[in-house]
Design goal:
Elements (H helix, E strand, L loop, with lengths): L2 E5 L5 H10 L3 E5 L13 E3 L2 H5 L4 E4 L4 H10 L2 H4 L5 E4 L5 H9 L5 E4 L2 E2 L1 H7 L2 E7 L1 H11 L3 E8 L3 H29 L4 H8 L7 H11 L9 H16 L6 H18 L8 H4 L2
Parallel strand pairs: 1-2, 1-4, 2-3, 4-5, 5-6, 8-9
Antiparallel strand pairs: 6-8, 7-8
Helix pairs in contact: 1-6, 8-10, 8-11, 8-12, 11-12
């Protein structure tokens, strides 16, 4: 049994916390909105990060934006108050440069960047893909814990490379989500039976997680967030910024980002990413 601090109890975080509790670990949790901790089955709930992290062997962070990561590590004091020798794991999809910055300021700790993919379903079923950057020895220490949260745990390389891997993931997801949406629009234009068409194409060359998992949600008008549009646009902004440092422009990424950015600007930021269909049906 380990004492584990968890900072950020959002859509995915709560399910991940539950898996760690079920495995017998003692969870200490913090969230800026205290009410979001009410249904978490642990007595260790805090209104300050200092009190949450000070006795824990591992500190997980899973917050919204890079600015939030910066705040909890540098302003709210994880780096000041965590127990010496603790392992700090940021699972937020964030900036590779920020992951490197945290590592450089963490002489008293071991640090990993470990963003995930799989959304709310993957978090609930412990089937997340976890992409880890940092020292290999630290990854090896954490592998059993990661395996409680996901079934596809990969060591990518040094600090920041977990985040770069997640950018590759988000670029691929952007294209797949747009392709799924356009296929549904085509089905509708020709009055095809969508369930039949999805069955026909869902196991062939067109097969994708988006087509098999998100298209049925769209057909049921279920646009609730497994992953927020506002967070996906943030991820794509990071990906665009990182690739543009190399002098390369990715046209598909630019196109899908522009569609999602328009949706966010029009009030759809708290919808799930499958709400891209709203762009086509505006």
């Amino acid at each position: 049994m380990m004492k584990i601090a968890w900072i950020g109890t959002g859509v995915m975080g709560k399910a991940m916390i539950a898996h760690l509790i079920d495995a017998g670990h003692e969870l200490h949790v913090y969230n800026r909105t205290v009410a979001k901790m009410d249904d978490i089955p642990t007595p260790y709930k805090y209104t300050s990060i200092k009190d949450c992290v000070k006795e824990c062997d591992i500190v997980f962070t899973m917050v919204g934006y890079p600015k939030d990561v910066e705040e909890v590590y540098f302003n709210d004091g994880i780096l000041d108050y965590a127990k010496k020798g603790a392992i700090l794991v940021d699972m937020t999809t964030s900036s590779p440069d920020l992951a490197i910055k945290i590592a450089k300021h963490s002489n008293d700790f071991e640090v990993l960047d470990a963003p995930v993919s799989g959304g709310d379903t993957g978090a609930k079923n412990a089937t997340l893909s976890i992409m880890v950057g940092g020292n290999k020895d630290t990854f090896d220490k954490m592998n059993d814990i990661f395996s409680l949260l996901g079934n596809n745990v990969n060591y990518i390389g040094s600090h920041g490379l977990g985040q770069h891997c997640k950018m590759c993931n988000q670029i691929a997801v952007a294209g797949a989500t747009a392709a799924m949406s356009e296929a549904l629009v085509y089905m509708d234009a020709y009055d095809l039976d969508a369930d039949t068409v999805l069955k026909a194409i869902g196991s062939g060359a067109a097969q994708s997680w988006q087509l098999n998992n998100m298209a049925p949600r769209v057909l049921n008008n279920d646009l609730d967030p497994g992953f927020f549009i506002k967070h996906f646009t943030k991820d794509m902004r990071i990906a665009k910024s990182e690739i543009e440092k190399t002098g390369v422009h990715l046209k598909m990424l630019d196109s899908v980002y522009n569609m999602y950015d328009e949706l966010e600007q029009n009030g759809f930021g708290d919808y799930g990413t499958q709400a891209l269909i709203k762009y086509y049906k505006k």
